[in-house]
Amino acid sequence: MGFGYFYCKRKLAEDGVSTTPLDIVFRPWAFEVEIIDPIHPLGMMHLCDLKKDGHTFRSMMHMYQYEMAVFHGKRGMSEAIAGAKTPSDDAKIGSRIQPVPEWYQRRDQILKTIADMKMRESASVRLSMLILADKPMAYIDPFSDHLGCGLKARVAAVTSPDQFLGQNKLVDIWKNLEVPRNDDDNVSDMDE
Which of 60, 64, 112, 165 is surrounded by the most beta carbons within 10 Å? Predict the structure, then answer.
């Protein structure tokens, strides 16, 4: 016969009568990874204004698509990407570019330059980097195993980063940038 009421496990005190709650911390996962999705301040689609060559880009991805077109000498495409009104428009144009092998050697440096520009322009990015500096992170990108961790968010959140299927390159880029400390950065700036 079992208990007929809720029984909360407790530790018996030395007097043999009193009890105290057990000091159990239930953490079934060995890892707790911070998830960075595309619209997170460190994500590729987070809205921000990045300026280059007389154009204003709405996100890191927008500028990245533009830089890919410029790298490949596709002037018409680069201007079309710069003038695109929506993320799906610039992605459609950028998807028509057939990358050459040299692009794969340069893209991380180009992305690092864009990330550095975004960090210098955005207090929310700087604060996110300071808050997450010592935490493992996973970038969830359903379209790129190079930039993303290659896992769905629920799985990535409890998986050791050295076991990610993708390269998680965007996180590597953020982790290797030095955050400038601005006196006017504070938590209230996170809603910029």
Answer: 60
